[in-house]
Amino acid sequence: MFDVDQYLKAIGFAGQPRPDAETLRTLHKGHLMAIPYDSSWNAERGISIWRDVDIDVDAVFDDIVIGGRGGNCYELNGLFRRLLDEIGFDTAVLSAGIRQVDGTFGPDLEHVFNRVELDGRTWLADVGFVGPSYLEPLVLSDDEQPQFGSRFRIARQDDYRVVERKPQTGDWQPVYRFRPQARDFQEWSGDQRELVEFAQQLVGAGTVIRGRAFDTGQMILIGRRYLEVDNGHDAMRVLVEQDELDRVVRTILRADR
User: Fold this and answer.
1) Among 100, 91, 94, which residue's Cα sits nearest to residue 73?
2) Per-residue pLDDT, 48
3) Which residues are catalytic?
4) d(CA 33, CA 5)
């Protein structure tokens, strides 16, 4: 059963939460550090990955916050949105197409995250994306926004906005693109041929994605490809040995850092 106090304790938040920018930043980063992303739970859903995008908050809370399993984008961001609503933030649902390896973007409804209206500004809050991405919410603005050694900006592309990241070395790279208008969960129902075809590719590939943030960066495991981002420095390697892979998985899922 959803419980604000239990939730705050689980993500390491102390004190009285208030609907302000400082609280939003602290909750966002704390959530990413405390609760992992884990796509292994998608395997049982098959091509119906987005079937339950409008989550049963109480059941998912019991599974993830109390039970300790990781979650996918709409589970983690759905829980976080409920937490923000309970505290008094003004939230809405957004969706995005994630940049693929070939440089294209996935379907618009592929990824589910949150919008927060606060102090006359729009913020992006996303605790359900494995990364590399932002540890603290981004303001929907053309300005560059530095975070923990990386820089972020939100570029305009026709009627889309594109979140872009620049590490310490290297060029700007898109993370995902989105439209800033709020989404309705009904948009995920009905004939979603593009989304189903995309899900078939994901399920067919069978690649498990896991990730967790730490104080200055993120651990990202896609199959056997392990990326660690620390203060804006990206270090990628392939985990060939099973023992090393198992150790990294344990570290991500249990926060043994």
Assistant:
1) 94
2) 65
3) 73, 111, 126
4) 18
Which residue type occupies 12? Answer: G
- pLDDT category at 205 given cuts 50, 70, 90 is low
Polymer length in residues for the chain? 257
Q: Which domains does the chain have, with CATH numbers?
A: 4-254 (3.30.2140.20)
Mean residue pLDDT across the chain:
92
Is residue 199 within 8 A of residue 238, CB to CB? The reply is no
CA distance 166 to 188: 32
Q: Please report the DSSP string for 211-226 in residue order.
A: EEEETTEEEEEETTEE
Please state, in angstroms and rounded to a whole number, the distance separating the CA atoms of residues 208 and 223.
Answer: 5
Percent of the chain clearing pLDDT 90 (strictly above): 80
Burial annotation 158-188 (CB, 10 A radius, 16+ → b, else e) = eebbbbbbbbeeeeeebbbbbeeeebeeeeb
Closest C-alpha to 6, from 70, 83, 69 = 83
